[in-house]
């Protein structure tokens, strides 16, 4: 019966969390790292009613603590989050087995009696990554690729440094938008760890931390800039690739190349005929 009650109150919390109006505050910046702590310590005294954590802007439920019913976690954060509970009104949590999917904006709400709720917003960032490049800036590319729609394509990012590479981050910027994270390759405790966030292809990490992205049945949305940021022992190195996807029914690369080859062959044949005619006339 007690288990049913716990499931019931957690279900009710998950239903009503998306509709809660939260007070907007300047977020606190926290560095993405293993065992990171998201502090949420209510500064006043009182009785604790409940602590809830959500990830915004979608208000995705993360964790809930209730003095009577205990703790509950969403599936993605289960066995990864721990409530610290250093004081009666401490809603702080620690997070382990972190990945780049944990980057984002988190909202903590401490419900107290009699003074009511106290909230805090925390921005988790990977401070090792460079800032986003403005769309108005000129982007210098190392490689330009052209693909026909519905074909398969492989994008290779190979670092040109002979030293030690610790991490490689693969990002994509569609035309006129900001950089999105696609995948991460890194060395952790001497082992290779790969994180694939691509919904259009497959990210493959080599032992050297070179990165490969396989795209199948290329579509127009795959076009744009791709870049690999290699973190090495002598700094960062960036490799940028521009992918152009040809519009179906319009310009065709294979037809274009056929015309080029045909035209070149015809021109050479005409030139040979002209030379032969001139040689015969001179005799």
From TrEMBL:
Gene Ontology biological-process annotations: cell adhesion; positive regulation of immunoglobulin mediated immune response; positive regulation of natural killer cell cytokine production
Places the protein is found: Cell junction, Adherens junction; Cell membrane
Pfam family, one: V-set
SMART domains: IG
InterPro entries linked: CD226 (IPR042842), Ig-like_dom (IPR007110), Ig-like_dom_sf (IPR036179), Ig-like_fold (IPR013783), Ig_sub (IPR003599), Ig_V-set (IPR013106)
PROSITE patterns, A to Z: IG_LIKE
Keyword Glycoprotein found: yes
SUPFAM superfamilies noted in UniProt: Immunoglobulin (SSF48726)
Chain coiled-coil ranges: none
Domain Ig-like: from-to ranges: 18-125
Keyword list, A-Z: Cell adhesion, Cell junction, Cell membrane, Disulfide bond, Glycoprotein, Membrane, Repeat, Signal, Transmembrane, Transmembrane helix
Transmembrane segments annotated in the record for this chain: 256-280
Keyword Transcription regulation belongs to the record: no
GO MF: cell adhesion molecule binding
Segment forming the signal sequence: 1-24
Membrane-protein topology: Single-pass type I membrane protein
Family: Belongs to the nectin family.
PANTHER family, per database record: CD226 ANTIGEN
Function recorded in the entry: Cell adhesion molecule that promotes cell-cell contacts and plays important roles in the development of the nervous system. Acts by forming homophilic or heterophilic trans-dimers.
Complex and partners: Cis- and trans-homodimer. Can form trans-heterodimers.
Full protein name: CD226 molecule
Organism: Mastacembelus armatus (zig-zag eel)
Lineage, broadest ranks: Eukaryota, Metazoa, Chordata, Craniata, Vertebrata
């Amino acid at each position: 019966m007690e288990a049913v009650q716990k499931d019931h109150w957690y279900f009710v919390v998950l239903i009503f969390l998306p509709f809660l109006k939260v007070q907007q505050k300047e977020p606190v910046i926290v560095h993405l790292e293993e065992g990171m702590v998201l502090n949420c310590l209510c500064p006043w005294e009182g009785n604790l009613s409940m602590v809830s954590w959500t990830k915004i802007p979608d208000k995705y439920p993360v964790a809930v603590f209730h003095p009577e019913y205990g703790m509950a976690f969403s599936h993605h954060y289960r066995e990864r989050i721990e409530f610290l509970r250093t004081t009666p009104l401490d809603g702080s949590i620690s997070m382990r087995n972190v990945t780049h999917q944990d980057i984002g904006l988190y909202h903590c709400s401490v419900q107290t009696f009699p003074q009511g709720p106290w909230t805090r917003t925390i921005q988790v960032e990977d401070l090792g990554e460079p800032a986003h490049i403005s769309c108005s800036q000129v982007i210098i590319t190392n490689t330009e690729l052209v693909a026909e729609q519905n074909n398969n394509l492989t994008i290779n990012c190979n670092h040109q440094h002979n030293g030690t590479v610790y991490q490689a981050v693969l990002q994509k910027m569609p035309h006129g938008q900001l950089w999105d994270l696609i995948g991460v390759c890194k060395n952790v405790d001497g082992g290779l760890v790969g994180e694939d966030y691509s919904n259009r292809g497959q990210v493959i990490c080599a032992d050297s931390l070179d990165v490969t992205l396989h795209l199948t049945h290329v579509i127009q949305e795959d076009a744009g800039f791709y870049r690999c940021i290699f973190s090495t022992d002598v700094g960062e190195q960036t490799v940028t690739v521009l992918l152009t996807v040809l519009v179906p029914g319009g310009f065709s690369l294979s037809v274009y190349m056929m015309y080029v080859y045909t035209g070149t062959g015809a021109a050479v044949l005409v030139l040979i005929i002209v030379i032969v005619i001139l040689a015969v006339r001179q005799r």
